Each structure stands twice: as structure tokens, then as C-alpha cells.
Amino acid sequence: MESDPLEAKERWLSDLRARYPSVVDIEAHLVVLRGIVNSSQPGSPQKAEEYIFHHMPGCEPTDDCYEAVLEAWSNSPKEDSSLCILRAKRWFAKIKEPKLQSYHLLLNVVSKGRVKRIKRARAIAAREENAKAAEQILETMTVPPDTDAYNYVLRAWAKVFDPVVSAGKVVHWLNKMEQAQQANPSGSVQPNTKSYTIAMQAYAVLAGYRAKSGKGEGLEEVEQIEALLRYMNELKKQGFQDIVPNTVAYNTLMSAYARLSRFPKHEDAPLKAEKVLRRMMSIGNDAQPDRLSFSKVILAWSNVQRPTSGHRADYWLGKLWELYEVTKKKDILRPTINTYNIVLKAWKNDPMNMEKVFAEMLHAETLDDKDLFLKPNSESFSLLIHAWAKVDPSRALMWLEELMQREVANSAEWSVTTVPDLFHVIIKYAARDPSIDNLVLGLKVFDYYRLSRHPLDVMSYVWLLELGLKAFSTQDHDHDRQEFVVDIVNDCCNDGFVSGAFVRKLSNSETYYEGWTIEESRDIVAELFSQWPLPASWSRNVITEQHVKESDLKRKNFEILSFPPEVQNRGSS
């Protein structure tokens, strides 16, 4: 009966009530109630509450019934976190004699740190409030707390956004655990592997914060992680069975190095991460490296962006495949799309080699072997398009078109999507190398953008205008430039995206002694923006940019960037 689905348990109780109504007691209702709690159906916490209120006639709910509903809220993966905590506290309050398990369930929901669907400022406050609530629950327990109860408090503080407060509190409560252990060596409070790894993770976050904020280099925090790892090894040697320096502990140390690798003075962080990974490969057993271990090393190389970063990333990706081929541990070692995306990031300044890695992914999606199947996702395409846009916008456009085709054709399971930034980046970098070919390319990308599911925006017009003014800057293109400017201004006005940035790009763009001159710039601005104030409809969709000011229409930059060829020749003679 325990392993039966919920529907079978409900039928069983219905039959029992029909045949032997007198024997339907609390234990019979608990069978169904626990079935509701253990089901994966959405809304199971609400269903458990409804069951107690409406489906237990003549039976007074017991502490076990209330604890079952508490468990439903505690383990709910999809409900709003604040609602889960509120309802869990309510049902916990109904329990007359809470057991240790009751406290575990309450501490679990309070310490999860899930703060979805609320603003960041509120999320920051909510996590700290939850951590303080977890402390209070632990300190007011009516039964002796155990290791798990303390670990929930450690987890709650580890989720707090402020890394200084988080690490300080985690260490504070870890010290309390150790003090409780010293006071009663055979007691229920014994710091275990999870306790120490939570502390290590808090130090890893703090190390990254120190390096990023300039309030330190993060090295002291990494030393604390290494010290805790050595301490765990020493305790294991002394026979503490609940303390095992495992894969998670070593991964946390490599995670700290990966965080530091993003900042100056830590160019050697990838080498230190490699050293830890090699140590894990030699230890094996409980510290056997997994996919995350290799990913952290690859991420460290990706962050430092040294000339060898891509090569080292490829090397460790190959080592991961080798280990997978030996062990066939798919869930632990098989490289995933995320693994490949980190390798792509390591090659972000070398799109040619990045494309070779991407080709591996394209090949893998054609394989029948599901264990080797890979399929590039939206991030994969985004990385490749961004890399090519800086070097060869036409190549970036090719991959954008491939992504757009997949966006239309792909199934929901493997869906990929475009984002506005992909259209932006191609036009933006095409404007840095202006030519007629790049203008044609930019116009094509702009048309794709207009036809896509994404609304146009201010900056797409600004970058396209810049590209056109540069590509049509010579005297030979006077007529083409005039037509281009009139068309793009009319389109921009009709779409409601005339912004200060757009007008300034037209009135204060780079000018020349011939072709696109200061005089022509003034004349065309005066002609196209003769009304003041401008009609409100021209800027109706401008959200992030300020609306046009009258001063935007006036030229402020009088620098002339180039001379006609004949002027240059006379100067040299």
C-alpha cells in the first residue's frame, strides 16, 4: 500500500468506507493524506489542507495529520516561498507535541532561500529574515536539536545575499556545533561533511566578493577553505565517520578559484584549480571528480582569458570525455551543453576555434546514441554570434539565420530562441567597420529584427543610422546618403523611436571636408526636424532613452575627421 499511487489509496479508502464505515479511523485517513503529500501532483499542499478540512468526518486530526500537511508545504517545489513558509508555520503551530521531525520540516522550508517573483531588495531582506527565523526556531526547540537542525540554520545563513554577514553567521553556528560536540562527544550534535562544506561555500562566495569589491583579494578566504579541507581530512583519519572530504568539498575549493579568476592579480587561479582537480583524480573514492569538477577548471580558464585559455579548456574537456568513456557514468561525468558553453566562452576571442567546438555539438546532435547526444541551445548560438560579430559580421549573420530557422522549426523539447541583443550586436559592430557591404548586411539584420517576435527599440535605429552615415560618407554617395537618412528618419518617426541619442547621432556625427559635411548635417537636421517641439507620437515608444531636447538638434562637435584626397596630395607636395 505504501508504494501504491494516490488514486489507488483513495479507491481503497472509498471501498473501506462503503463496506466497513466503523473501521475508518485516523490511521486509514493518514494513508491517503501521506499519499497526497508524497505525490508529485501540483497543488498537493492545498489538497492536503482540503482533505483535513472536508474529508475526515468524525475524526479529530492528530499531530501526525498536521505534520503531514506541514511536510507537503515544506517539500513543495513550485509554490511561492513566502506562502510555503507562512502555511508551514501555521500547521506547525497546530502540533501539540512537536517531534524532531516536525522541527526539521519547518527548518527545511525556512532555510531553502527561494525568493522568486519578488524584487531584489525584498529578496535580500526576506533571506535574512528567514535566516533569523531559523535561528529562533533552533533556539526555542522543545526537543534536543541534532546535527540536521543546525545544518538547516547553516544553510539559511549561507543563502543570505550579504557575503560578509553570511560567512560570519555560518562560522558562528559551526563553532556552536563544535562546542556542543565538545560538551557532549556522544550527543546528537556532531558537525558532519555537510556542515563543513556549507562553511566552505560561504567562504568561496566571500572570496569572490572581496576580490570584486576591492576590500581584499579573496586569498584569506581561500586559505580558510583549504584549512577546513585539511581539517576534514585529519578528522577522517581520526575515525570520524560522518566527516568525509568528498567531491562537493573539493569542488567548492575549485569554485573559489573560478570566482577569483575573474579579477586581476589572480591569473594563476586556473593553475591552482587544475592542481586541485589532479589531486582529486589521484585520491578517487569519495573525492572522485565529477562533471562539475572539470567545469570549474574550464570556467577558471574562461574567466582569465589568456592566450592559452581555449587550449586548456579543450584539454580538460577531452579529459572529461576520457573519464566518461572509462566509467560510463552518464549522470556524473558525461559533458553537457552547459559544459560545452563554458568551453565556448574560453574561446570567445577566437571565433574560428570556437566554431570548431560548436561543430562538435552540431555533430553530436546527429548521433543516434542518446548517451552522446548534444544539441546547441540559445546560449551556444549567442556566444558564437557575439564572437563573430566583432570579427566578421557576415559570419555572425549566417549563424543568426541558422538560429532563426531553428527557432521556427524546433520542437518544444529542444526549443532555441533569438533575443534582441543578437540583432543589436551585429549592427553595432558592422558600424565599426563601415562599408557598403556592411550597410547592406546591417539593413538585412534590421529587417530580420523587424520581422521577428521582438519589438524594435531605440538603439537599433541609432546604430543603423551610424552605419549608414559612415558607409555613405563620401561625395560619390551624396544622393544615396540623402535617401537613406530621409528613409530611416521617417521610419523612426513612424515607429515612435525618435530619441535624444538618435537625433544626436544625426546632428553630431563624424563629418568630413566633402561628402557628409558639417553644412549638410545642419541642413538635413533643420529640414527633417523643423517642428519644435517634436510631435509626441515620434517618441511614443521611447522608454529607456530621454526624449529629445531642443539642444540635441544643434551641432556641438565641429571636428572634421578627414580630407579629400586632392587636399592630402597638395599638402604632401
Structural summary, described in words:
This protein has about 575 residues and is mostly helical. It has 27 helices and no strands. Helix 8 runs parallel beside helix 10, helix 19 packs parallel to helix 21 and helix 22 (about 435-450) runs antiparallel to helix 23. The model is unreliable at about 565-573 (pLDDT under 50).
In short:
The chain has helices spanning 6-19, 26-38, 44-54, 63-74, 81-94, 100-111, 120-139, 147-158, 163-183, 193-213, 219-237, 247-260, 269-283, 291-304, 309-327, 330-333, 337-346, 351-364, 378-391, 393-409, 420-430, 436-451, 458-471, 478-495, 500-507, 518-528, 565-572. The protein is mainly alpha-helical and 573 residues long.
Q: Which SSEs are present, and which pair or pack?
A:
Elements (H helix, E strand, L loop, with lengths): L5 H14 L6 H13 L5 H11 L8 H12 L6 H14 L5 H12 L8 H20 L7 H12 L4 H21 L9 H21 L5 H19 L9 H14 L8 H15 L7 H14 L4 H19 L2 H4 L3 H10 L4 H14 L13 H14 L1 H17 L10 H11 L5 H16 L6 H14 L6 H18 L4 H8 L10 H11 L36 H8 L1
Helix pairs in contact: 1-2, 2-3, 2-4, 3-4, 4-5, 4-6, 5-6, 6-7, 6-8, 7-8, 8-9, 8-10, 9-10, 10-11, 10-12, 11-12, 12-13, 12-14, 13-14, 14-15, 14-17, 15-17, 17-18, 17-19, 18-19, 19-20, 19-21, 20-21, 21-22, 21-23, 22-23, 23-24, 23-25
